[in-house]
Specification:
The protein is mainly β. It is built from three helices and 18 strands. A hairpin with a 2-residue loop joins strand 10 and strand 11 (about 270-280).
Length: about 400
């Protein structure tokens, strides 16, 4: 999970717009006595920081910037979110090599929610290898509805629990052909439920579960930019095994599929489409089941309200550059959860749509503010870095 739960930075946006429009004054009439430059004030330095953030910095080995601010949501109440983004190249003279990227995200709120994580992609010289990594932990007084579509659809099942969750995942990819990669992956997950209001909804499963897994992944990636694609295609298929002999109390395997396409429609207009599925075979625990709703898909749904062994999600998004560093996005999608393929029903398909604002924080790195809407008026604000897919 790399979701910074619903956040807004509107307090910063007016200053960002001002910074983007500022121009240095002419110095043609500087007096001879003004040989010492004036010190910049705090506000001026703040505006210059954001004004220069999206300009390529070829002289820097590592281009790193930070943004943050207050937010409010019905789930986490008042809080403070922080996102830091970095771009770098392992071969600075190779302009055809895509930049590696790293993001650090954190959040804390008045209800006791806190989160810290890191994710990124390290691209080795000549793009022979790639290392994708994610690690995070969070604690959240969250809600739980039980397992399966019917339980999630029942408002009366809404119950409270304090959930603590952590994940470490790494995937080392080896290029075997043009844009084509294959390689091993490892993952560790820990989920703990405390102060559970309705323990019967766990269906007898342990409250504290950890899982260690290993597997492999295949990827085809022709995207022009990893963090903000405008053209190309991305396919990723991964298989993770979590057997008993690794110490797992709940043994199961997971097959993940993600397929994205991107195309330019007109000046500043990008069409993006995304398909993803997660299939768990065996005996996954309540905390490791496929869950709808996060900052990348089915945006606006409470993460984990709908959970089961399997899920399928689709979404299409139109991204439009508007003015200077500002842009907007609209999307529509659908998804569902199920325990076996014979249980798939059209009435269980959940709709999703929404609108978002984009601000170019760095070159090809957008700050993303999304407002998603789901079934029955479920809504959610999302603040994150980079596009959803």
């Amino acid at each position: 999970m790399t979701r910074l739960l619903p956040a807004l930075l509107f307090a910063l946006l007016p200053a960002m717009g001002t910074a983007a429009m500022e121009r240095p004054e002419s110095t043609d009439t500087v007096a001879l006595g003004d040989s010492v430059p004036k010190k910049r004030g705090l506000v001026k330095r703040f505006l210059d920081y954001f004004n220069d953030a999206n300009k390529p910095k070829e002289y820097k080995k590592f281009d790193f910037s930070i943004i943050g601010g207050p937010h409010y949501s019905t789930d986490t109440k008042f809080g403070l979110g922080l996102v830091a983004a970095g771009l770098y190249r392992t071969e600075r003279n190779d302009t055809l090599l895509p930049p590696s990227n790293v993001s650090i995200f954190g959040d804390v709120s008045t209800v006791g929610f806190y989160m810290l994580g890191v994710r990124g992609t390290h691209i080795f010289p000549k793009d022979r290898y790639r290392l994708d990594y994610t690690t995070y932990f969070f604690s959240f007084p969250s809600n739980y509805w039980g397992i399966g579509y019917e339980n999630g659809n029942n408002d009366a099942n809404k119950s409270e629990m304090k959930r603590w969750q952590a994940q470490i995942q790494a995937n080392f990819m080896i290029r075997i052909a043009n844009n084509t990669y294959v390689g091993p992956l490892v993952t560790f997950d820990y989920v703990s439920g405390k102060d559970i209001e309705c323990p019967e909804l766990l269906e007898g499963m342990d409250r504290h579960v950890w899982n260690l897994g290993a597997g492999f992944a295949f990827s085809y990636d022709s995207r022009d930019v990893l963090t903000n694609p405008k053209k190309g295609m991305y396919l990723n298929i991964s298989q993770i095994f979590r057997p008993k002999f690794l110490g797992n109390d709940y043994a199961f395997s997971t097959t993940n599929v993600r397929f994205d396409v991107y195309s330019r429609l007109w000046k500043g207009g990008i069409f993006a489409a995304d398909f993803r599925s997660e299939m768990n075979f065996g005996n996954p625990s309540w905390g490791m089941m496929a869950r709808l709703g996060n900052s990348y898909s089915m945006r606006g749904y409470y993460e984990g309200r709908y959970r089961d062994k399997h899920k399928i999600e689709v979404q299409a998004e139109l991204r439009q550059h508007v003015w200077k560093r500002n842009g907007i996005a609209v999307w529509a999608g659908a998804g569902t959860v199920f325990d076996k393929f014979s249980a798939l029903r059209t009435r269980k398909i959940l709709p999703n749509f929404g609108v978002g604002y984009r601000w170019e924080f760095k070159k090809d790195v957008n700050v993303r503010l999304d407002y998603g809407i789901g079934k029955g008026g479920q809504t959610g604000f999302i603040f994150n870095i980079n596009e959803a897919f």
